[in-house]
Amino acid sequence: MKPNILCVDDEKDNVEALERLFRKKYNVLKATSGAEALDILKKNSDIAVILTDQRMPAMTGVEFLSKTIESHPDTVRLLLTGYTDIESVILAVNSGQIYRYLTKPWDPVDLAHTIDLAYERHQLGVELKKKNKELSTALAELKTLDSAKSNFMILINHELKTPLTSILNFSSLLNESKLDEEQNLYNQRITASAQKLKDLIDDVLMIIKSETQQLKLDFQAMFWTSTEGIVNPAIQKLIQSKNLKLTSKLENLEFKSDRRLFYQIIQRLVHNACKFCDANSEIQIQSAKSGNKIRFTIHNKGPQIAADAVEKIFKPFYIDENVMNHSTGFGLGLTVCESILKLHKSSLHVQNLEDGVSLYFELDLFTVD
């Protein structure tokens, strides 16, 4: 279907000449006065281009075009005039919002080309308006999603953590009382399960806080030259059960980070390395300058991560289904690391090597402006 254009000129021969020039590509609507053209516009909302003469009785081209702005804001306007005085041109641009003006007598090739350009501009404007509407809808959906995340976070904090805290407190009290062997076993299992659920809830809250920008970072200059203090009970348990060894090679470089969250990232990555490495092997922790950044690397010896799984492991609750070995999950540890690193304008990278897997990230070196 041909797009509609409207040609307006008080001389009938002119509008008929314009129709012959454009009719191969466009459906040409004709009017010989501003009033007649306004009536046509009332009946047709989909006018791509208006081409009008300036000097017409009763209503000038500029006056006519100014009346079309409210009813047809997306239509592209062109002005034909036999006069080139600067005041008429300025008035046309300001009042009529014209795309271009052309002088009489017109050059058919130039005029046809101008109409084509005007139609392209109209289509771009329509497409832009459509995209803006889609973006506005998407933004509203994102705001709704962020609101839902915040509400979910409140729900977890109040409706899950409160009863869970009670379970852990009473479990601790039971542990201090006289229990037989079977009762003590049951209580240990209750405590372990409740603690696991608490850790999961804390991880989910950390991810939501990061994604909704509610996690505030305290950036400061810091050094990290020793792994002392990063081995928590969970890591220590893995080291002992798998007979692992931690080694480190850390450069004395000052970098910018949130101290508390930095150590949390390192602990999570070391725990992940211990969990998936071979028994009786070594976990290597390194830091080195990389351009104007410092790169932190945790390397473990063990099976490589399949290429199709690399992207998935940063997603919450990634599960590697294996019927023989049950389900081995990467949990939320790496997802939490990635969320925190995004706030540092960084990200986590996986590198498969011949003897195992390396996980690394980079932070800005501290510089005084």
Q: Give the second-level CATH assignment, the architecture of the largest domain.
A: 2-Layer Sandwich
Q: Which strand order spans the largest sheet, edge to edge or round the barrel? A: 2-1-3-4-5
Shape, principal axes of CA atoms: elongated
Quickly give the structural class: alpha/beta
Tally the helices: what do you get?
Answer: 10
Share in helix: 40-55%
CATH topology label of the largest domain = Heat Shock Protein 90
CATH superfamily of the largest domain: Histidine kinase-like ATPase, C-terminal domain
Question: Which runs of at least 5 residues are low in confidence (pLDDT < 50)?
Answer: 321-330
Under CATH at level 1, the class of the largest domain stands as Alpha Beta
How would you characterize the largest beta sheet? 5 strands, parallel
Radius of gyration: 35 Å
What is the number of independent domains? 3
The total count of strands amounts to 14
Note the beta-strand portion.
Answer: 15-25%
Please describe what this structure looks like.
By secondary structure, the chain is of the alpha/beta class. It folds into three domains: 4-106, Rossmann fold, CATH 3.40.50.2300; 135-211, Signal transduction histidine kinase, dimerisation/phosphotransfer (DHp) domain (Helix Hairpins, Orthogonal Bundle), CATH 1.10.287.130; 219-364, Heat Shock Protein 90 (2-Layer Sandwich). The protein is 50% helix and 23% strand. It is built from ten helices and 14 strands. The protein has helices spanning 12-22, 34-43, 61-68, 86-96, 108-176, 181-211, 233-242, 259-276, 307-310, 333-343, and strands spanning 4-8, 27-31, 47-53, 76-81, 100-103, 219-222, 245-250, 255-258, 282-290, 293-301, 318-322, 326-331, 349-353, 356-364. The strands form four sheets. The chain has a five-stranded parallel sheet, with helices on both faces. A five-stranded mixed sheet has the order 7-9-10-14-13, with helices on one face. A two-stranded antiparallel sheet has the order 6-8. α2 (34-43) packs parallel to α3, α5 (108-176) runs antiparallel to α6 (181-211) and α7 packs parallel to α8.
